[in-house]
Structures are given as C-alpha cells and as structure tokens.
UniProtKB/TrEMBL annotation, chains A, B:
InterPro entries: Gfo/Idh/MocA-like_OxRdtase_C (IPR004104), Gfo/Idh/MocA-like_OxRdtase_N (IPR000683), Gfo/Idh/MocA_oxidrdct_glycsds (IPR050463), Glc-Fru_OxRdtase_bac (IPR008354), NAD(P)-bd_dom_sf (IPR036291), TAT_signal (IPR006311). The keyword Oxidoreductase applies. GO terms for molecular function: nucleotide binding; oxidoreductase activity. It comes from the Bacteria. Residues 36-159 form the Gfo/Idh/MocA-like oxidoreductase N-terminal domain. It comes from Caulobacter radicis. Residues 1-26 form the signal peptide. Residues 177-367 form the Gfo/Idh/MocA-like oxidoreductase C-terminal domain. This is Glucose-fructose oxidoreductase. Pfam families: GFO_IDH_MocA, GFO_IDH_MocA_C. Keywords: Oxidoreductase, Signal. The keyword Signal applies.
Amino acid sequence: MNKRTFLQAGLAAGAMAATAPAAALAQAKAEGRKLGYAMLGLGYYATQIIMPRFSECEHSKLTALVSGTPDKLAKYGAQYGIPEKSRYSYYTFDRIIDDPTVDIVYVVTPNSLHRTFTERAAKAGKHVMCEKPMATSVADGEAMIAACKAAGRKLMIGYRSRFEPHNLDAIALAGGGALGPVATIVADHGWTASDPNMWRVKKALSGGGSLMDIGIYSLNAARYLTGEEPIAVNAMESTDRSNPVFAEVEDTINFQLLFPSGATANCVSTYSANCNRYRVSGPKGWVEIDPATSYGGQTMRANLDGQAKPRTPPAVRKSQFAGQLDHLSECILTGRDPIVPGEEGLKDLRIIEAIYQAAREGRTVKL
Amino acid sequence: MNKRTFLQAGLAAGAMAATAPAAALAQAKAEGRKLGYAMLGLGYYATQIIMPRFSECEHSKLTALVSGTPDKLAKYGAQYGIPEKSRYSYYTFDRIIDDPTVDIVYVVTPNSLHRTFTERAAKAGKHVMCEKPMATSVADGEAMIAACKAAGRKLMIGYRSRFEPHNLDAIALAGGGALGPVATIVADHGWTASDPNMWRVKKALSGGGSLMDIGIYSLNAARYLTGEEPIAVNAMESTDRSNPVFAEVEDTINFQLLFPSGATANCVSTYSANCNRYRVSGPKGWVEIDPATSYGGQTMRANLDGQAKPRTPPAVRKSQFAGQLDHLSECILTGRDPIVPGEEGLKDLRIIEAIYQAAREGRTVKL
C-alpha cells in the first residue's frame, strides 16, 4: 500500500463510516488494521507516559519516531521494533510523506514548535495529534488549523482528561442536572518549578509560565464542566522575577471566569504549590476530583444528598492515554471530527491571551 | 455592688492585670467572679448556638437579655434564670447602664443595626461583642470604634474561628513555615439561600448579599492564614436579579486577593452552593479544612511530606464559642486588647467595599 492507495483507502473508510461508524470500526478491527502513529519529540511524556499505552489501543499502533537525538531513536526504535527507515530526525522528518506506515504524527515538543511540526506533518499528508497548549499564540493556532484543513487532514489536541472516567463522570453529573444549575467551579492546578534551565520557563519555547503548562488544565476543566464559553475574565499574577526560574515567565496567575449561564469559575495556576483538583458546585450538590487531571490516581467525592461521599465512576475500557490515541484513529476511520479538535485548543488559547491581558491591565476582559 | 463600684473594680482589675494577667485571671476564677453578658437579638444564632455555651465558660456568664419580642424574653429568661429586671426591649435597653450584672453587650442583630446598638451599649458603659460583619459600611465601623474608645470600653468582633482548634493549627502551620512561603489560599464559603423574606437578602438590613454574610469567612481566613493585609483585589459577581431572593443583594461574588509577600487568594462567596472550606498551599505542602468555619465537624488534611493525610489539631479546652466569649472577659479582666478588636472588623469592611467596587467597575482595586 503506497501513500496514494492508503489515502484512497482512508477516504473510502471515511465515506463509509459517515453512515456506519460502528461497522467501520468493527471492520478495521476484524482486519487487524490499526492506524500508525509517529511520535515526534521523545521526552519524558512521549516515552514514559504515551508510548507504553499503544499496547492497550484497539485502533492505534506506534510505527515511527522523530527526534533530534540519535541515541533516543536507537534506544526506543529497538524497544518498540520501529525499523530504521521509520526513524526520523527533525531534518529528515519531511520524508515521512513517503512512509505508508504513518497515518498520524503526535507532536510532543516544546510549545512554540507545535506550529511548525503540525504544518510539516499536514503537508506530508498526515493527521496530527498535538499536545496542549496547541501553540503559543492564537495566530499560530489559527495557522495550524488552516494547514490541516488545506491538507484535508484532522487535527486533534491532546486533552486526555476528556477520556478519563472520573472527569467523564463529573461532566455527566454537572451537565445532567444532578447539582442543579452549576454555580461555581473551583479548579486548582500547580506544581513546584525549581529548575531555571527547563524549556518550560524559557518564554521562546513555552510561550508562558504556569498558565501555558498546568493552569490550562484549570481552564479547560472549567469549560468542559460547564459546556460553555466564558464571557469575562479576571486575573491576578504573582511572580518573583528575582528568582531565576521566573526571569522570563509567570509563576502564579490565578483567574476568574464568568459563563453565560451565570456559572463562575475561580482557578489557580501556579508553579509554587502542588495542586491538581477541581470541585463543581450547584444548589443541589457538588462533585470533586483530587487529583483530577493527573496521569492516574484520580479520587472522587460527591455530595448529592447533603452528605459528602466517595464516588467511583463507571468503568471505561481503556486508560485516558489509549482512549485519546484511539479517538483520533476512530475519527479517521469513521470520518468524524474529534471531540477536541484544533478549534478546542484555539478556544483555550484565546482565553489564555485574555487572562494574560486581564492580569497585565488590571481589568476584566470581556470575550 | 452598684455601677460605680463595679466600674472601679474593673479598672482596678485592669490595672493589676497589665502586669500580671495570669494572676488576674486566677484571682477572678478563685473568687468565682464571671463577667456578665447581655445577649442583644434573640435569633437562632444567639439562642441556639451561643447561649448554651456559657456553661462552658470560665470567665463569662449570661446575665441579661435584649429582644423586641416579649415572648422570647419570657421564654429564654425563664430558661436561663435571667430576672425580669435584666430583660430589656430595644426601647428600655438604655437602662442597662444601671444594671451592674452586665459587663458586656453581645450584639447579634441584623448587620445594619450593629452600629446603633454598639453605640448605645458603649454609652451605657458596657463593653461590646459584635457579630461580623461589624457594620454595613466603613463609616459605621469607624463610628463604632470611636464610640467604644470614647467610653473607655472594649469592642470585639465575633470572629469565632480564631478560637477554633483546626483553624488555629492551620494558622500555626502556615505561619510557622511548614508549607514554605504561602503561595495560594483557596477559600470557599457559601450556602443556598432560597427565602426572599429573610433579613439577609434585604439590603437595608444586611448591607449586602453573600459577601456580607458568608463570603466574609473566606476573606477573614485569607487574612489570618497569611497574617497579611491584601494590596490588590479582583472580583466577579454573578447574580440573577430576576430571582426575588436576589432583588436587592448579590448572589455569587468571587474575589481574588494579592498580599505583599506575593501570596494570593482565590475566594468563593455564594448563595447558590453549599461550601465551607479552605486550603493554604506553599512549595513544601498544604493544609486544608473542610468544613472549615462551621459551628462544628471541622475535618483537616495536610500534605507536609508529599502525601495527603488526615490531621488532628492539638486539643483546646473550650469550644470556639466559649473561647470567644471568654476571650473578651479575659481581656477586660487583664486590661489587654482582644485579638479581633473593632479594627479587625474594620479591615474586613474596607476590603469588602473594595471587592464590591472591583466587581462593579471591572478592575483591580489597589488597597
């Protein structure tokens, strides 16, 4: 199967799936056909968190590696049985256009490189999974969406919590009226950054500090828990610029959101405390997860009848990581759009820019 | 003992206590001398929460009642053995000047009446315990402080959490460096208001909505946990004015505080969800209480070594209510100032006015 026949097969599968998505998935499974991922950027998250999860996937497999470090290509190539011809440097990456084993490129680089690799992947005819934040500016995010659209390829952002059972349960509870109309969301995300040399505190690579890295989880949670887009934003920053870690990016930037329904969110984003939790509350009760958006260990409590109790969400078949990887493959096989497409990443980016503006100007920014 | 000799005795005790407070308290205890409280305003909080706690007190006793409802005076007068001559209506209240059994008047009326009763109590030569918020405006709070100062009487505000063991432990942990420099405080206080007829939603009586009533706990906690005064305030309000409950006052008004050390606070104040908790976090750990400022049932967790664990605070001898009541008595006996004097209430009021202004004007208000 060369690139052309593959693309045609993909189109055919997509056309079929629009009328019968379940049948398309069943057929792919019966044929043992899995979509191939190239991992681009072999850091901790890609190699230690994502790559081991392909073994759980029904519709996805790891078929290529892209890295600037030859030793990593050799090590993980051997470990995952990736042939040398499917190991790419950033210089040889564009040759991936001729690699029929690759359907999707998963971009896991520092944030400011997401745009260029997404554009190159789309130009090579590949679908793209891109880590969050999708880019370091709204302009870059728009360009990525345009590039994938022009190439007729799908773009999905790595919002893995949307495939995590506790988060899915909280979304269902909040959206299903179990809490009454959502009144307040409190979402706190942070960790203690102490290494002044990591790329996350270099503005040219990260685009910003805690908000780009971890505060985005508070923001995205407030949006998926309400199912609404905020109409106003407040923010307050606290950064010790004399600390070399924070010479270029913000430490703490807490923000407030107001949603059209009247729901509000108070969100923490910090590099000076470890926190990973949220609670969504309404007149009839609340549900909280702590930790909420971590790689594992989610713990849930709900107060639905005047008493706080531990809660176990309905089981799901796959980890959040495999769920995320397979979702894009399923969307390609069935011709559907991902639930967290590029446009979802762009919505977060627009609000992130509003948060920075609100903090800088000391005023409520309307959206 | 008439009023004059009583006042002289009080002055003498105060003078002695300045040099030997412990001795003054021991002597009062040995003599079985307790300071007498008049409860002014016989609603739920006074009659069901406070009055039963005098039995726990070492230095305080209930000696008079003030109410606009004769039935209440009769009922609680009989229950607590208060003689008829020490039962006052709001019209006869000023005669309390001649009641030597009363040292302190505890004002538990709707907020907007705090000023006038504090002034009348001070004019009658009585010390004053006043519920929070101390008043409905900074101007009223200042007048109350001036009235008590002019009368040479003490004014204390009913911040009972300052006598509650879990809160004391959290203050000690945060202030003692166990968390590292405090980075963020998240404090959420709310309950679900549904009665459009209660005084709390009548602006002329309450001065404001959830912030005056329950959000003040979030605010006061952020201040006692940092031991600092905020220098900047953001706020975001969400109120459905078509709901008769909220025709006059705000429902949700969440706020953010920035402290001189760089510590930040994200606070919820709402009448549309039940919440009563806070967490204070720094780079080395966090401590949380949930419920935090309730009448009882405080539950604490701390993460001081990378793991969240239940925590039991050091025991204290008395309930927060008895601790609060006795504190003012002890201050009078020893000539000391209360830890939560009128000035403490005034600090909250100034910030409350800034919070309303920040929400109204959509901008950061500097303090």
